[in-house]
Every structure is written in structure tokens, then in C-alpha cells.
Amino acid sequence: MPRQSTSLDLATPQRIAESALRIVDRDGHTALSFRTLAAALGISVAALQRRCTDLAGLLDLVTDQLAARLPEVPSGTDWATATGRRFTALYELLTAHPGLVALRGARPWLGPQLLKRLVEPQLADSLRAGLTPDAAIVTYRRLYLLTLGCASFVDHRDPKSAQAATRQALAALDPEEFPVLTGHLSAVLPAVVDHEVFHGALRQLIEAAAPAGPDPDGS
């Protein structure tokens, strides 16, 4: 019994998340397994499975611990500024851990920390600023999908490799069939890893969705 208690003490959600992220960030997302993670934690696979029964549960635990790093925007911050801070912070978290993004794939991210630090306050701010519930939810979805899409598919930690892979793929194209792509490499390659693609699009979405404010009578 003491041995089991020690194992469970070592397998705290925070330690599991930190160790899993180290493995994924260092060795790639294919390196993460219950066996490798348990070894890194110094516990048995069975002890690890008591905390998260399968890979889906492990990914939910890791992403929720990661979401706890999202900032809590002070009350009273104007809508555009608060929105920009939240989604910029989410983008920075995702681009810092591309392996985790790849592992999650299409799985929804609905952990309590993300809901508490991003979804709920963003929707509440939108309603207070004058958006209708439907508009608030649609605006949130647009911002979230922009952020997720810009953080996916490219390892922003290694821009040279990302550009090299893109160059190699485009070099295999027939210039007569793809004259634009093959003829404008100098424009295509920087855009692949340019963070301003995200930041510029985020500003445009925020400006387009910015509410005029609640009606004076509060209706």
C-alpha cells in the first residue's frame, strides 16, 4: 500500500502534464506512450492509468493543465484588447507545443481550465459589450478556428525546416501546371512561418466583429 501511495503521489496531474510535454516537445508526438511516460515519471504503467485510463484521457489532462497557463484578463478591459490577449496567448501556447496539437487532432478541447480561462470569459465579455448570444458564439468560433488553424500544420519552433519542406514540395510541381506556386517562392516561403499571418488576421476579425456596445437602456 505505501508503494501505491508513493506512485500516485508522483503521478500528480501537473507532473504528468509536464513530463508528457517534455517527451512530445523533445522527441515528437509519436514518442509519447504510457510506457515512456511512466518511465519518465518513475512509476508503473498501472499507476499512470489510475490517473488517466487511456491516451484520450492523457491528452485531456495535458491540455487542461496547459490551458491553466492562459491569462486571466482583468475585468473592465475593453472588448478588443481582451479578445486579442486571450487568443494571442492561446496561439502562443499552441505554437510552443506543435506535437500536442498533432496528437489531439480533431478532438475537441473542452477541459475546465480552457472553459474557465477562455471560453466563458470571452463569451461573457462579448455579451456585456453588446453582441447577441448567437453573434458572440459565432465570433468566438471564428477566432478559435483561426487560432487553431494558424498553429497547426507547421512547426513554428523550426521555421527553417518548415520552409525547406515547403520548398521541396513545390519544387516537385510542374511549372506549367502550377505557375503561380512555382513562380513566387519568394512570397510563399516566408508566409508559411510568418506569425504576422495570424496576428494580422486576428486584428481583422476583431475589427470586423467589434460590437458597438450595449443599448443605453440595457436592452
Automatic annotation (TrEMBL):
Any Pfam family hit: TetR_C_1
GO biological process, one term: negative regulation of DNA-templated transcription
Keyword Transcription: yes
InterPro entries per record: Homeodomain-like_sf, Repressor_TetR_C, Tet_transcr_reg_TetR-rel_C_sf
Keyword Transcription regulation assigned: yes
Classification via Gene3D superfamilies: Tetracycline Repressor, domain 2 (1.10.357.10)
Top-level taxon of the source organism: Bacteria
Ranges where the Tetracycline repressor TetR C-terminal domain occurs: 76-206
Keyword vocabulary terms for this entry: Transcription, Transcription regulation
Protein name: Tetracycline repressor TetR C-terminal domain-containing protein
Organism per entry: Streptomyces aurantiacus JA 4570
